[in-house]
Amino acid sequence: MAERANPYSDLPPEAYWRSAVAEAGLYGMNGLWASRWVLPSDARFATFGSCFAQHISRALVARQIGWINAEPSPGRCPVEIARKYNYGIFSARTANIYTAAQLLYLVQLATGEIAADAAEFWEEKGRVYDSLRPAIEPEGFANRDEALLSRRSMIRAFRRSITEADVFVFTLGLTEGWENAATGQPYPMCPGTVAGRFDAAAHVFRNYRVAEVSADMGAALDAMRRLNPGLKVLLTVSPVPLTATASGQHVLVATTYSKSALRAVAGELAAADPGVDYFPSYEIISGAPARAGFFAPNMRSVEAAGVELVMKHFFAGLDRSGPAAHGREAATEVEREEATEARMAAEDLACEESLLEGFNRG
User: Fold this and answer.
1) Listed residue (149, 117, 145) closest to 131, CA to CA
2) How many whole angstroms from its chain centre is CA 337?
3) Residue ranges per domain, the chain?
4) What's the whole-number mean pLDDT along residues 66-83?
5) pLDDT over threshold 60, residue 194
6) What is the CATH class of 31-326?
7) Residues near 326 by Cβ (< 8 Å), separated by ≥ 6?
8) Exposure b/e, 133-172, CB count within 10 A at least 16 = b
9) Span 299-308, pLDDT tens digits
10) The pLDDT of residue 350
11) How far apart are CA 57 and CA 306, in angstroms?
């Protein structure tokens, strides 16, 4: 009997689960990702997002690829002190950006649409905390002027991260967040957890829906491209589960919704926009082939072997075969930051969300 011609007749092996996954095995899978762009050999990358995004910045620095550090620590600052005060973690000192709403707010600060002093400052025991980055200074700031000065520095650095980057890498982390009921300002953490005081009348819980995440991401992309028309955006989704949920659901169900929604948005944006791409770090760690083997005993933290595999696929699919675009300027930047950032790579991730576990009485 002659074989019938159909769209599945001539698909490559990676299109079939048996040949691409079951027979290949976890470490034999190939072609999980191939960048849709040919980047310059000295391409510059800005990295932001949730905790897992920090692995990408470390991997770029370790390979001496152009990671933008727009807000470096003061000269001769010891590595352990720089790390404590959140230098060298993201391309600017934003701390973790967990939601699309947070990203949009920061972009609006960078474009000047929102004034630098519009977001709240919290006073506690004689110290001042930035509501946009409540854990950025472990002991808080001495006063509001000092806190605002630091925030302005972060905003300028975040803007430079956008204007100077070839690729803006953003790791989507959560759909759950908190906002100011009156102003709509999103918080990275619920007030009263890391700093500030919770007020049920003033602080509202949000579990952003797919359409809301998509709208916030679209608005953020549009605004970033007004600053840098040629900017490319590489999205990924953190595989790290929620530490806690305020949704009323079991945390496993809440995590599944959150990651599914973020993955859907990232896929839709990449499908519709040639300037957006998606890298599957979430699938590598959380997919069936891994059998949850890359998670630490707490079933949340990702072990080094998993990070290594993610980075293997990331750099295998990255195409930097284009002509250099930045010349000696980029090389000097790498040389200046190499020693400090390489040593930081061995430190623990800075993840404010994990502090929520301190409230677990179970």
Assistant:
1) 117
2) 21
3) 31-326, 327-362
4) 86
5) yes
6) alpha beta
7) 40, 42, 44, 66
8) bbbbbeebbeeeeebbebbeebbbbbbbbbebbbbbbbbb
9) 999 999 999 9
10) 55
11) 16
Structure tokens given for 309? 């595999």
In degrees and rounded to multiples of 5, residue 53 shows phi and psi of -60, -25
Place of tokens 């967990």: 98
Angle between helices 53-62 and 304-317 (to 10 degrees): 70
Strand pairing partners for 203?
Answer: 180
Q: Chain-centre distance of CA 44, in angstroms?
A: 16
Residue 206 in contact with residue 178, Cβ under 8 Å? Answer: yes
Residue 176 forms beta bridges with which residues? 207
Q: Which amino acid is at 13?
A: P
At 66, is the secondary structure helix, strand, or coil? strand
Q: How many Cα atoms within 13 Å fall on the side-chain side of residue 165?
A: 27
pTM for this one?
Answer: 0.90
E-assigned strand segments in 114-210: 121-124, 127-130, 167-172, 176-180, 186-187, 203-207
With cut-offs at 50, 70 and 90, classify the pLDDT of residue 51: confident
pLDDT at 186 over 60: yes
Q: How many angstroms separate the CA atoms of 280 and 267, rounded?
A: 10
CA distances from 234 to 33, 47, 238, 331 (A): 12, 9, 13, 23
**Residue type at 215 in one-letter notation:** A
What CA–CA distance (Å, rounded) separates 48 from 103?
9
Residues 287/344/148/158 CA torsion (nearest 10 deg): -60
Residue 319 makes CB contacts below 8 A (sequence gap 6+) with 34, 35, 37, 38, 39
- Say how far residue 72 (Cα) sits from the centre of its chain: 18
Per the listing, tokens 């934003």 go with 94
Which residues make Cβ contacts (< 8 Å) with residue 354, sequence separation at least 6?
51, 243
Q: Where are the alpha helices (DSSP H) in the chain?
A: 17, 53-62, 79-84, 100-111, 144-163, 210-227, 251-272, 281-286, 304-317, 328-344
Q: Is 199 in contact with 254 (CB distance < 8 Å)?
A: no
